[in-house]
Amino acid sequence: MHNKLMRVMVWCLLSLAGISAFAQNKPAAKISGDVVKIGVLTDMSGLYPDIGGQGSVTAAQLAIDEFGGKVLGKPIQLVYADHQNKADVGANKAREWFDTQGVDLIVDVPNSGVAIAVSKVANEKHKLFMIANAGSTRLTNEDCSPYIIHYVYDTYATGGVTGRAVVQNGGNSWFFITADYAFGHSLQDDTSKAIKAAGGKVVGSVLHPLSAPDFSSYLLQAQASGAKVIGLANAGGDTINAIKSAAEFGINKKQTLAGLLVFITDINSLTLQATQNMYVAEGYYWDMNDDTRRLGKRYFAKMNKMPNMAQAGVYSSVLQYLKAIQATGTDDADTVIKKLKETTLNDDFVKGGRIREDGRMVHEFYLFQVKAPSESKYPWDYYKLVGKVPGDQAFQPLSESRCPLIKK
Known about the structure:
Blueprint: H1 2-25, E1 36-42, H2 53-67, E2 70-71, E3 74-82, H3 87-100, E4 105-108, H4 112-125, E5 128-131, E6 148-150, H5 155-168, E7 173-179, H6 182-197, E8 201-208, H7 216-225, E9 229-233, H8 236-249, E10 256-259, H9 264-270, H10 272-275, E11 279-282, H11 290-303, H12 309-328, H13 333-342, E12 345-346, E13 351-355, E14 361-362, E15 365-370, E16 383-389, H14 391-394
Parallel strand pairs: 1-3, 1-4, 4-5, 5-6, 7-8, 7-9, 9-10
Antiparallel strand pairs: 2-3, 11-15, 12-13, 13-14, 15-16
Helix pairs in contact: 2-11, 2-12, 3-4, 5-6, 12-13
């Protein structure tokens, strides 16, 4: 009995020693600078403040608050800046943040030209850049990078879903009014491919500068083309001003306007009277289900308006980033990116999302039609769901990818 008791005691001591050694050898959480710092780089004063702006900052803060304000016992700090829709300003701010301010992640960045410039800095610095608010498919094709995640939408999804729907409803001839920079070119190209694949045709196009002061000459060219549909390959203030001008000229009574990147915030600015029956392709709508409503109502309490899909995507990207840090015990970019690409993403914005090797976050997309004023029952009740598009149909397939990271 004595020997047996001694053996039990020795076994317990050895077990405790093993546990102690394991605890001592277990790597400690590695957080650079003892703080996780997230930068929202956005448009505060130019063409896209309603698409991003303070709303994106608020959305990022909602995610941080939901997570508890700390990760692995370290504080989470949020900073933001206005890129002024200038690629050099955006790239310089990103470089400053990464080099001297200890920023670990940049999010948002409306304006594809700025996003492409920032992506090059992120790649050079081996830092993570999660894009919620730029649309050019170049970001997952020619300009793809191991450090870029294109999170919410792109021109392939918004233009393709909308273009196919309009052609199927009789809008088979198109004229484009296109913003003359990377985003506009991508949107026209991707929508044109979808239109032709659906049996439609493109009869012409015209380019306009970013933040065009007057759309009358472009609209008159579109009117003279005789096209059934005028495709607006632009966004934000340009789309809003083009639609307002078309109404003033009476063009929208004879030809159909197709906004190829329209946000719910744009509908709110334009009113249902001006946009009723318009098709809209989006990756999020606040009034779809209990989860989307929960996020929408939390955001509304802060901003007195509902989030658009990009702002909801900022919330989701920040939340998923923090979850990946929690799971891996570090904010090292390579480790966090690897974890994100292994994870099925679920939150109040996305269900079943996955991040491909080209950086594209693939998720379900939706086709909505804008309600008539008589159909809207309460504030921000703007959309009726027409169809759901699975992610692998909404976004460009890898078989068509021009991303150097993809091995074919």
